[in-house]
Design goal:
Order of helices and strands: EEEEHEHHEH
CATH architecture of one domain: 4-Layer Sandwich
Structural class: alpha/beta
Number of helices: 4
Helix content: 25-40%
Shape: globular
CATH topology of one domain: Metallo-beta-lactamase, Chain A
Strand content: 25-35%
Amino acid sequence: MRKIFVDGVKPSHLGTQPVGEAAEVAEGVYQLKVPVPIPLVFVSIYLVEGDDGWTLIDTGFDYPEGRATWESGAAAVGCDLQRDVERIIATHFHPDHLGAAPWLQGISGAPVYMLESEIQNSREVW
């Protein structure tokens, strides 16, 4: 039988990371569990620090608890949502990944990127 785990690799703490808290997953890459108002409970979004500013990947729903978590989580990792965001990426058209993009774009001025086919899907569905 082939060994699939490397000796010394520890289990990830991300499974027990509380909703609303940011955790570093790699150097300059942070996961933030943003609450969502559906049984899913949260969606994991990512803040990536770069030389030209921050990239936000996925957004969660646009609702007060989500916005508050974005503001506190971004601040906790050193990202000022009004000054430091260079781009926002939505991986697909579901509202737990795209919903808060207009709000984040409005406060940051950063462009939102998504695959062209996903843009069309979002227009048809939402």
